[in-house]
Each structure stands twice: as structure tokens, then as C-alpha cells.
Amino acid sequence: MEPYNIPTGAGESELTEKRSTFLGHVRCVETEDEARAFIAAMKKQYHDARHNCWCYRLHSGAERYSDDGEPQGTAGIPMLEVFKRAEVTNVVCVVTRYFGGVLLGTGGLLRAYAKSAKDALDAAGVSVVRRWVRVRVACSYALLERVKGATAAAGGVTEALDYAADVTVTALLPEETVSAFQAQVRDLSAGAAEAVVLEETMRPAAISRNLTPHP
User: What is the mean pLDDT of residues 35-53?
Assistant: First the structure.
């Protein structure tokens, strides 16, 4: 299965533009029912707001959006484009607007809704779902940063660090880079360290800032 990106956790944002307040909320979902349930919950929570604009995008290919009374094309589509550019799926976003009495114009609305969605996604973080190989490397403290750098260069993620006499690095690597990573660890350590394969796992792993992992 090809890798795909999802939000790591819940993300929220707040933006004030010419006295209007925009509240962004991003969540990870797997079905249209889950997405619509979240949208309904946000509309209920912010029932006193002028607009609750939304979009969702699923790995299955489903994409939906709503301007919820804003001028056509100024809210739902720019929000959706944020997730398309980030190549993030299984995501729902609701941006609530409390109108401040000053019209923003088409360009102002486009920017405000897109920024609210982007800021909420940044707060949520992004994880990639793929088949990973979990490896473990016991190395000296002097080599730690170089092993972490090799992990990142291989497209991997440092999962855990255990500190003792040496440092034990547990990392997730794309399966196609494992052999090259093992060779690099041997070279970096002059044969003193080895990247030991533990298991294969299909799961999300965070590749950008996140608040709470998606289970």
C-alpha cells in the first residue's frame, strides 16, 4: 500500500481579522459519517456564530466542503486546498467565524479561511501511514546525533531514546531504506554498532509537529 498522510492529533487555531474571529478545528477521521458527526458537533457548540464552514478529505477519495453562507468559493474550497497541498487525507476541518461587522472582501475571506485551516493543521501535526521496519541501535553518546541524522536521511523517524551507559535508539524506517541504513550505522561506528531489525509494523508515525498521537 502506498504511504499517505493524516493529522497526528487534534489541532485548533484562532485568528482575528478586522474584528472577525476565526476558530479552526482539525481532526483525524476515517469515514464520512465520522466527519459529518464532527461537523454537526462543531455547529452545535458554536451555534451562535455567523458561519461554520467546513471541508473533509478521505483516503478513500471522498471530498466535500461547504461555505455555509459565505460568498461562494471563499471558505470551503480554500480550506480544502490546504489539505490537498499538504497531501493530507482522513481529515475534517471546521472554521467558525464570529462576524465583527467589517466586510473582508473575497480576498480577505480566502486568506482568513485558508490560514485558519493551515494553522489548525500545523497544531495537529502530520503523520505518515505506511509499512515501517522498527530497528534498534545501541550506540555511544558521541554517535547519537549522527545516528539520528542517518535515520532522518533514510526517511525514518526516531521513535524512542533510552539512556544508559550507551544510548539505545529505536527508529522506524521505510522498508526500502533498511539495508542502506544498517550499512551506514556500521560505517559511522567503525563496526561497533549495529542496526537490529525488530519487526515490521503498519502504523502512522509523526513527521511534523504534533500534540497527541493518533491511536
Answer: 97
Segment 78-94, tens digit of pLDDT: 999 999 999 999 999 99
CA distance 132 to 156: 9
Domain boundaries, the chain: 4-124, 130-206
Whether residue 64 contacts residue 9, with contact meaning beta carbons closer than 8 Å, is answered with no
Contact, 70 vs 109, CB < 8 A? yes
CA dihedral 154, 160, 162, 166 (to 10 degrees): 0
| Number of C-beta neighbours around residue 55 at 10 A | 28
- Predicted confidence at residue 198, as pLDDT, reads 96
| Entry pTM | 0.81
- Residue 138 in 3-state DSSP? strand
The DSSP 8-state label assigned to residue 51 in this structure reads E
Where does 4-124 sit in CATH, by number? 3.30.230.30
Burial of 35 (0-12, 13-18, 19+ CB in 10 A): buried
